[in-house]
Design goal:
Elements lengths: L1 H5 L1 E3 H7 L5 H11 L11 E3 H13 L14 H21 L11
Helix pairs in contact: 2-3
Amino acid sequence: MADRRADLLSLDEAARRLGGISRNTLLRRLAEAGIRPPKPGRYAMLTEGDFAALVLAMRARSPAPPAPAPPPRTPMDALRAAARRNEGRRIAEKTRGKVVALGLEK
């Protein structure tokens, strides 16, 4: 029995061996890989075989594609953005003194 327990990894130990991922991430990766760790007692444990299968499944995941680079900004784009900002300021200045009271006071 002692040998058999020596072949088991706790979930915390497995997470640490996977680069310090969180326990929740480990549980999510186990579910994605379809691995259900045995629970010989109170706590779930991983066998070395399950751990190896998990590592292979995690390597098989394709990384997210990189985000596309934004198109280069032309001087005309910069002028348009500045005009939009200035237009907003102009509208705010025009309406600053013209706020209408709704008369909702008690």
